[in-house]
Amino acid sequence: MWKSTSFDRAQAAMKSFALDETSVSGYIYHLLLGHDAATPPPPVPEQWLKNYDVSAPGLPTLNTVQQTAVRMALSQPLSLIQGPPGTGKTVTSATIVYHLTRQNQGQVIVCAPSNVAVDQLAEKIEVTGLKVVRVAAKSRENLSERSPVEHLTLHYQAAHLRNAPGYAELAKLQRLKDELGELDSKDERRYRGLRRQVEHEILKAADVVCCTASGAGDPRLAEFRFRQVLMDESTQATEPETLIPLIMGAKRVVMIGDHCQLGPVVTCKAARQAGLGQSLFERLILLGVSPYRLQVQYRMHPCLSEFPSDVFYEGALQNGVAASERLSPDVQFPWPNDKKPMMFWSHFGQEELSGSGTSYLNRQEASAVEQAVTQLLKSGVEPQNIGVVTPYEGQVRVARFPNPTPPCFISPLVTVVHTSRYTGLILSFLQSQRLFVVNHMQRVGSLRQELYAAVQVASVDSFQGREKDFIVLSCVRSNETSGIGFLSDPRRLNVAMTRARLGLVIIGNPKALAKQPLFYDLLTHFKNNDVFVEGPLSALVECATPLTPPRGKGGFRKGNGEWRGYIPALGSNPDFKPADQIEEKEVNWPSGGGGYAAWNANAAAQYASSGDGDGSTSGGYQHATAPGSHAGQYSIY
Questions:
Q1: How far apart are CA 355 and CA 275, in angstroms?
Q2: Residue 381, class by beta-carbon neighbours within 10 Å (0-12 exposed, 13-18 middle, 19+ buried)?
């Protein structure tokens, strides 16, 4: 049964944003509405112009680009940081939070649309030595599956604090409640009051409060004001959802995400067409706020990052790991090119409409998945290090269900507005049906069933934010005329391809896929690297299928031979500067693959603040608008 809690909180946040003048700072308010800022930016604080190491204790040392992102976030009221796959955005986020707590601006609230993302970030922040409290929904407090940050949760800390001296009455009532199952009305009121008091004390003592974006509207946080907000995975949240933590008094906001990966999940077509599918992160880019991009990836073998970098990130991604660090010589897998652990394995089995009538399956590809997974398992790869990705729910079920049965959709899930926080609900509902690839592997595979059951088989959405050593991607679609559906979404392919650390196997019908420009370029890339193959896994040969450019879609590369990007920059920013056009005085602020006009404005203001520059000054503030600056990037409150 659908509960309206998250929806109600988002509505309340929008109302508060519109009517309550204290909900956010005046600057943030006008910025989010796209109003021009009347006051020019002050100079960047002196401490953040110095090139000293801003890495946080307990966390890895940051690279130059990451350190610049930290300085930028600490010197402006609003910052957008784009984190492509594997670029260390979680470590960067934790470092930013560590320094925010040192700004004497009060507590920091850290949010993300999903519980998984919040837990990962809370775990990293705790390493720095900060007092972290993870506020989980009451419905998650009694889950049987233990969370890696359970010791940080509010209910866990409250349960252990009430056993400390000074909380004897609460401990006594808790024991009585455990023994009897319930208390009389008087004791129950006293118990709840004491528990709220304990929880309030724990929250008040925290440096950082971590929760989902919707969880920021929890009544237990109602009395708290957070002037500093960090929103991770912000491109996966709808705009009303993002407002929930912002209207708690935000004066400094750091939004981290990647608009080149999956956006919010909005299943209502009318709501999506009305703009609910656009995140606040994306809308701010449209308003002219340039995101600062992290550009050194540490996850993938360099050959695996080459295509995503060229096609989705204008070739800006650099490799922080060498090929030698991502080799797996002990894994005996028949890679066509020993130096490049990737391949496109051609299969021509026909797609079928799944039992639900709303999705697709491909039995021949499911069989190929089993063969690839079996070979990896035989080579000694642990099953938890293997991931099987398929964009179609029907194929997930084919991989696990020998006899698929139609799912029973709950009608409110279809009619209400969905955001990414509902993804976990939908996926958990389908999880019991996610048994055709694994059931197929268990029936046909030669190894123990427990090994196949431990291999994660999930949709592209489920894998966002995660990584595996080896990924097997089943494309499913195989037809002559009806196209490839949402496989053509470049953001979906970007996520699917960038989950693997050591090796990637893509299984699909090249004849059907090559009709779409993006997949034509992908197949051409694999062919040029001698990893475009067909045949049995034990005797792979070069695929003989000719690749014909899609009709009327020629010219997939620029004249200089570079790939054409399939995810264009949102909006048109006249102040955008490529990295090679950065002026000498801006050298301390690398563009991260796209010029950040705020640094230009702040640099100009810094030079003018002494009164010797071109702009007149008063109290260190530049009155003449700095070159390259515009609304959305002024560092004032």
A1: 32
A2: buried
Least-confidence region, from 78-87, 233-242, 307-316, 355-364: 355-364
Q: Is the pLDDT of residue 627 over 90?
A: no
Supply the mean pLDDT for the chain: 78
Token code pair at residue 300: 């993938």
pLDDT at 49: 55
**pLDDT (0 to 100) of residue 398:** 52
Q: Which residue has the tokens 């360099």?
A: 302
Residues near 195 by Cβ (< 8 Å), separated by ≥ 6?
Answer: 158, 162, 170
**Does 615 score more than 70 pLDDT?**
no
Give Cβ neighbours of residue 290 (< 8 Å, ≥ 6 apart).
Answer: 80, 573, 575, 576, 594, 595, 596, 597, 598, 633
Tokens of 448: 């123990």
Q: How far is CA 434 from the centre of its chain?
A: 23
Q: DSSP letters of 405-423?
A: ------HHHHHS---GGGH
d(CA 261, CA 43): 34
Report whether 9 contacts 246 (CB < 8 A).
no
Mean per-residue pLDDT, 84-95: 95
Exposure string over 15-32, b if 16+ CB within 10 A, otherwise e: ebbeeeeebbbebbbbbb
Closest CA to 601 of 40, 26, 35, 39: 40
Question: What is the Cα–Cα distance from 53 to 61, expressed in whole angstroms?
Answer: 8
Buried b (16+ CB within 10 A) or exposed e, 596-612: bbbbbbbbbbbbbbeee
Mean pLDDT of 602-625: 36
130-150 residue pLDDT tens: 999 999 988 887 775 677 899
Which domains does the chain possess? 5-294 (3.40.50.300), 341-542 (3.40.50.300)
Using CA atoms, how far residue 147 sits from 115, 143, 158, 465, 526, in Å, is 10, 9, 16, 17, 40
495 φ, ψ (degrees, to nearest 5): -65, -45
